Amino acid sequence: MQKALFYIVASENERERAVIALNMARRAHEFKRFADVKIIMQGSSQKLLLDEDKNVKENIDYLISNNVIDSACTFIAKNLSIEEKIQSRGVELKPAGERLSAFVNDGYVPLVF
Questions:
Q1: pLDDT tens digits for range 3-54
Q2: Beta-carbon count within 10 A of 71 CB
């Protein structure tokens, strides 16, 4: 079985794409469709970590509590002034490029949304 990395970089105009990716990642984790599932969030998609929509929040809560979300991009979170809010949700901020390369070098297959 392969390990999957959901790299979510969808813009605000592509919110639905990011929401679908989060749902797919959750289902992949729940039903053990891969050996491991991780998520890196970059760009404005990081705002979904703070979204109050019931379905989005439920997926985010599941993904955080099951350690599926590896990180959100430090640079973008600072630029959006949401770094403290993201960290208070239990998501670490790390350089996205470094995390992406670490996962790929560890055999994860990137799925980009």
A1: 999 999 988 889 999 999 999 999 999 999 999 999 999 999 999 999 999 9
A2: 22
> Strand pairing partners for 38?
5
Task: Give kind and range of the element (H or E) at residue 76.
Answer: helix 74-79
CA dist 94 and 113 (Å) reads: 19
Tokens 């809560």 appear where?
A: 61
Are the C-beta atoms of 112 and 21 separated by less than 8 Å? no
Q: Which CATH number fits domain 3-112: 3.10.20.310, 3.30.365.10, 3.40.50.300, 3.40.1260.10?
A: 3.40.1260.10
Please name the helix (run of DSSP H) or strand (run of DSSP E) that holds residue 4, with its range, or none. strand 3-8
Separation between Cα atoms, residue 99 and residue 70, nearest integer Å: 8
Give Rg (Cα) of the chain: 13
Q: How far apart are CA 70 and CA 54, in angstroms?
A: 22
pTM for the full model? Answer: 0.94
